[in-house]
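Re: [help] complex structure
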Amino acid sequence: MIQEIKPRTFYNQFHEERIGKGDSIICFHNDLIYVNQEKNDLEYISYEAFCTWQEEMNGTGKPVKKGTGDNSLAEKEFHFIYLFSIDEQKYFLLREDVELSLPGFTYCKMFDVRRRAPKYQVMAASTAWHLYVWYRDNRFCGRCGQETLEDREERMLKCPHCGNMIFPKVAPAVIVGVIDGDKILMTKYAHREYKRYALIAGFNEIGETIEETVEREVMEEVGLHVKHIRYYKSQPWGFDQNLLLGFFCELDDSHKIHMDEKELALAEWVRREDIPDYKEHLSLTHEMMQLFKNGKEPL
Ligand SMILES: [Zn+2]
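Output below.
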């Protein structure tokens, strides 16, 4: 899975850091991420490249001299916030949502970035996206409407007026492998970019345990009762602020599917040997499908 980046180590502890030489900058604009288009390996802007660009160019690509009073991006004071480190490499987020024009760089969909290599850079993109969305959507206090400030001690936005403290949002969600003998229930989503097989999935709702989420989601999507719910593993990245928790369970009573056609385009029982291997070791869904294919699901 994407988070499995050994021998590298991901350090998510927040501390106040000033951006400097050698640091990587992750930028987003209109929900797209800014990556090097000339290299096979996924790469972000270095601080040095950013400074050079800012000195040499303005937003339209024409060279400008500093201090001319030009109100372009080249004159702008950008604000960077420390995100995390992977080994010694520090990553910063450009907080402004502006369109940049660095040579060799392009804006890319997050969905396309996830298939790129190396994996640790994909992990960086996913986690940066999670934090970017959180910073972007919490610029103002939801209690009193004042502009929030970044806390210096921890990953928190704080309202200077009413003291409201806002922490990054992590939304628990489940992926469920429903088993009936040597078959597993596989689905395909309706109205989504992702066209391959998936498993039943959905978000936890207020007031329910995660096991109840499993039962409810299976009932809502395919109208089936399940039993013997057991936890497998989690996936800490996702494009919807989620923490995915993977479960296997057994079918309880009838195996007749009543599919929710608003959510799904297909729901069917698939034998172990017929499960496709997409050879894409990125997601928990794929890992759970392969685990079942190979008869290695937790009992
Ligand atoms: Zn407030």
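Residues 141, 143-144, 146, 159, 161-162, 164 surround zinc ion (CB under 6 Å).
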